Request: fold
Amino acid sequence: MNPLGIDWQVAYVCVAVMVIVSLAALAAFGWRFRRTEGASQFLLLIGSALGWMITVLVMAIAPPEQSWFWLSIKYVFIAGAPIGLFLYALAITGLTPRWQRGIVVALAVVPVVTQVLLWGPDSRHWIISDLQTDKVGILTRTSQITFGPFYWVGVLQGYALILVSIGMLLVCAIRANPLVRGQLATMAVAALAPLIANFLLITGIAPRQFDPMPFGAAVMSYLIWWAIIRHRMVDLLPIARNRLTDVMDNAVLALDGQGRIIDCNTSMARLLQRTPRQLLGNPIARFLPAGEGPISAEGPRAIERLLRKDIPGWPVDPSDRQLLLPIAARHYASRIVPLPARRPDAPDGRLLILDDVTERVEAEVSVERALAEVKTLRGLLPICAGCKQIKDTLGRWRPVDEFISENSEADLTHSVCPSCLAARYPGFSDLGRQMPES
Reply:
């Protein structure tokens, strides 16, 4: 008699169905960004876990005589899940080598041999030497199972891949910034849940009446959903880039399509006078109040334009077309690099790289100020051969003194040269003294 009044077989089936629905939703979610980096590895992981759970449920409700068939199918997904986890861990930590295909081929050897042995009536004892199932209530249970020698080769490979994946995720999480750390740590815990469930099953600690894998897979799927919703795991692929960007003098900031800060290096955090923990996950506009803090009054306008695809009408350096951004009484030339979103329906992000060009800007201002103080006349000036008037750009004939005064910084004073003095005023000497009459 069940004191709680719960039919545990029905509850077990309900849990398995819920996990299958959750994993199917994850697979559909991942399929939407299937052409982006890391998507194929994610789909391999989730697809293998989904197939694993479907075969667990089918084995539980199918007749006992079909157990061998469904068990053979299940081992395809059991082998694929650790491989998918390992490849996805390489992708999200930025450690994927160029020879990834060679890794996939090498890791597929044991699963292929396992399937060949399982489907051979005379060789299946290398994987499972004895399998006995019976019907208890509405479910088929495994009452007795004895594993063959090659089975443990597959178990060793699977456990090794899972443990190495967890190790990579945790090591990179320790070195990563807070936002990426949450993603990697959550994935590490998610990978640990089915490992524990499988260990309880093959060691006999868990009763054979119920396969504990649905419960481990439930924890894994819900943790992955948590990483997606809380840490935006699939918006922009996190990579272990801190060792590169954190040693850069340039300030680097990554924004998602909604203008939220998803990554920054120490130089940018120092520039914005905040810690990375205060910046990550928040809208960039929150730290840019007009006229307050390190950003000048023009800063919010500049950041607003940075979030747009087109940036017309903003001061741009003519040599390299870089947006000039004033921060903390200094000038920064910014480079804007688009970051494609991992989902086709999501807006692209932006990578903002700031380079301090204050000295260059101040030097240019000094040169412009010096040039503004010098006005010189250049080119051909049309001048009358008779009266010596000059024709201006409007076609008017102007006296020489009037034209020079308006088109230069010179101040003219009037005098009389010795030749004109002798011609016009013969009664005066060349020194301006009046000669006595003879």
The beta strands are 128-136, 139-147, 251-255, 261-264, 323-327, 330-339, 349-356, 390-391, 397-398.
